[in-house]
Amino acid sequence: FVAKRLAGRKVVLTAGPTFEAIDPVRGITNISSGKMGYALARACAQAGAEVVLVSGPVALPVPAGVRRIGVAGARDMRDAVHAALPGADVFIGVAAVADYRPLEVAEHKMKKKDGILTLELTQNPDILAEVAALPDAPFCVGFAAESRDLDAYAEGKRQKKRLPMLVGNLVQDGMGSDDNVVVLYDDAGRHPLPRAPKTELARGIVEHLAGLLEAAGR
Ligand code: PMT
Question: Does the complex come out with an ipTM higher than 0.85?
Fold first, then answer.
């Protein structure tokens, strides 16, 4: 980075999957590797920001200049985000948060039984929607991972959560891999970024974010 465009700003990000326990040895999770979120945390730190990365369980090194807080379930992630938020100028939700968790977590390892096992699931909090609705909300950037109709779903999520910026991607393009193809959505429309390594895309996302912050006079 030539310009430290986020100097003096505090950025809180979420990354990776969440892990929703079923019993002491099992859980529900997804294939997010954390690579996109970690690359973005690194790019924010390189742009001069103070960075707190709230991360689900992934095996990635912590980028230089980033404070990482490890969490498992969506509710732990939400608590860690709220603890990190005071003083934050920007919140970026990169994590693939499980929308549901088992209603009950068994205290002991569940025993195998014959026949069908039914798990009851209950809804998790939407961390990004909660942060965006705070009276003193930071500048919120969402992500949307879709398997089809990216423009319609991504822009729909941006509008619903009232986000100034959202990064859309197709699951088959970027979930788990080193490269990605993303489209940035904001009030001015859609801005596609061509396929590139996530480290490079992260710099493009930070440049766009810094421009919007400056334009908004924040
Ligand atoms: O980790 P990688 O392998 O590098 O893959 C990157 C990625 C595909 C996970 C990433 O680029 C991405 O798209 N992250 C968002 C994934 C997602 O599932 O989004 P969503 O459409 O379910 O959620 C929309 C937004 O709300 C996201 O910013 C999400 O973090 C947030 N959210 C969703 C549900 C919830 N309960 N809480 C949230 O904060």
Answer: yes
